[in-house]
């Protein structure tokens, strides 16, 4: 796979390099996910991350964020609850609503996963020259800002 090294390349050409780097990140992410216990599927991990980000969310909100129907999200939560990673409780704001939150084990699993990812990334970054690391950080900030702007545009009502 040829990586683009000329800064004057067109976005479509640069996308090839970004795709190659993203594939490397996916490999790192998958390896780290394989190391944490208990093992969770990619969809279970996404659910845990959404609940973690919100601290507490109802089932409908989780289903929306996952792009799933509520019954599928509920079954996903059943499995996470059985594994001791997620808890359901009556919402303090509305007794008819169920609030989802991580258990201590769920929080620990995410902390372990994040630590494993950071460790793997640090090893790869240590092999890069300092100037390349600096350029990577600058480029990723620009990419993040552009992506955030694009996602915000997509969410605006027409």
Automatic annotation (TrEMBL):
Stretches assigned to the HTH marR-type domain: 11-145
GO MF term set: DNA-binding transcription factor activity
Superkingdom of origin: Bacteria
Alphabetical GO biological process terms: response to stress
Signal peptide positions on this chain: none
SUPFAM superfamilies xref list: Winged helix' DNA-binding domain
Name of the molecule in the record: HTH marR-type domain-containing protein
Residue intervals passing through the bilayer: none
InterPro entries: HTH_MarR-typ, MarR/SlyA-like, WH-like_DNA-bd_sf, WH_DNA-bd_sf
């Amino acid at each position: 796979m040829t990586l683009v090294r000329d800064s004057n390349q067109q976005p479509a050409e640069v996308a090839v390099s970004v795709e190659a780097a993203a594939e490397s990140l996916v490999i790192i992410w998958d390896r780290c996910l394989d190391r944490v216990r208990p093992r969770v599927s990619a969809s279970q991990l996404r659910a845990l991350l959404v609940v973690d980000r919100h601290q507490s969310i109802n089932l409908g909100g989780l289903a929306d964020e996952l792009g799933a129907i509520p019954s599928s999200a509920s079954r996903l939560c059943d499995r996470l609850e059985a594994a001791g990673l997620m808890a359901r409780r009556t919402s303090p704001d509305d007794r008819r609503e169920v609030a989802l939150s991580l258990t201590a084990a769920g929080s620990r699993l995410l902390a372990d996963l994040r630590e494993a990812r950071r460790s793997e990334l640090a090893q790869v970054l240590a092999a890069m020259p300092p100037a390349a690391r600096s350029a990577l950080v600058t480029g990723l900030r620009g990419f993040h800002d552009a992506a955030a702007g694009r996602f915000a545009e997509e969410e605006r009502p027409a």
